[in-house]
Amino acid sequence: MLSPDGKWVWDGSRWLPLADPSTATHHAVFSAWNGVRVEAPLAVEAAPVAQAPRPAPRPVVRYVAPAPAPEEPVPLWRQQADTGLNKYLYIAAGVIAVVVLAVVVNSFGPFTLPWMQAPSSGPTAAAGPPPLKTRSSYAQADRFITGYLTPAMDDMNQRIATTRETCVGPVTVSCQDAVTETDNQAQALMAIVDQNTVPPCIATPVARFRGDVSKVHDDLQTAMKSFAANNTSQTDAYLARYGGAVPAVPADFAAITAAKATCDIALVGP
Predict the structure, then answer these.
(1) Could you list the pLDDT tens digit for every one of the 270 residues in the chain?
(2) 192 contact partners, CB below 8 Å, separation of at least 6
(3) CATH number, domain at 194?
(4) Are 6 and 18 in contact, with CB atoms under 8 Å apart?
(5) Under 8 Å between Cβ of 159 and 185
(6) What is the domain extent for residue 207?
(7) Domain count along the chain
(8) 38, 67, 216, 244: which has the fewest Cβ within 10 Å?
(9) CA 199, CA 116: separation in Å to the nearest integer?
(10) Reduced to 3 states, what is the DSSP secondary structure of residue 10?
(11) Model-wide pTM > 0.70
């Protein structure tokens, strides 16, 4: 079997080279093949293949989404104002929680915190009456009672009433505040007696008044100390003792006013 290129022959087990056909002498494997010449195959020009016309390219259509229309501003009359309600609700809830906690703690006994104590309005002491127009014992007593003692005693009566209304049942912070203000006013009354000249005609009821106010002051002081120690039983005991001593103060003041009528109206001195 001869290879397509005419250069090899198959001997049954392998390919063997033939003589070079371009030379004058052929040297083949088999002597009978020396006269064989292999002509190169003629090149056949292939007829041109008619190509089908390519279809015209279709135009590419791009679809672009229309731009969104700008939002129209909301008219002022339709805009909802920010009232900040949530902020105030949180603040109110916090305040309520603190108040409830204070009430619960206070129910176990007298307990105070610095921010829970109401500022005291302070004792009331009269600025003083105008100078005497007449020099008599009656005029001096009237000036002392009307100008000094009466304004301070009016305030003392208000403090006594507040303490009586507040210190009922379990001891509270409001009761402690009322006791503190009543004691301050009691000290103001004692200062009025100590710092002014008392005519002899009213000296006796004034001295009794001063002693009873001092007892009230002592009872209130001990009650305030038991407040600070959170000793409820002692606080109740001292407040009960104060309640027994305080009625004498208005009675003594009435006695001072009544004693003024006994003062001499005669002029004294040059």
Answers:
(1) 677 777 777 777 887 777 665 554 445 555 665 555 555 555 545 545 555 566 666 666 565 666 666 666 665 555 555 555 566 777 878 888 887 777 665 555 444 544 444 445 555 555 556 666 667 889 999 999 999 999 999 999 999 999 999 988 777 889 999 999 999 999 999 999 999 989 999 999 999 999 999 999 999 999 999 888 888 888 888 899 999 999 999 999 999 999 999 998 887 655
(2) 125, 126, 148, 149, 152
(3) 1.20.120
(4) yes
(5) yes
(6) 112-262
(7) 2
(8) 67
(9) 44
(10) strand
(11) no
Query: Do 148 and 241 belong to one domain?
Result: yes
Please give the Cα distance from 187 to 214 (Å, whole number): 8
* 117, 250: one domain: yes
Are 259 and 207 in contact by the 8 Å Cβ rule? The answer is no
Q: Are 105 and 230 in contact (CB under 8 A)?
A: no
Residues 125, 238: one domain? yes
Per DSSP, the three-state class of 187 is helix
Of 39, 36, 17, 41, the closest CA to residue 26 belongs to 36
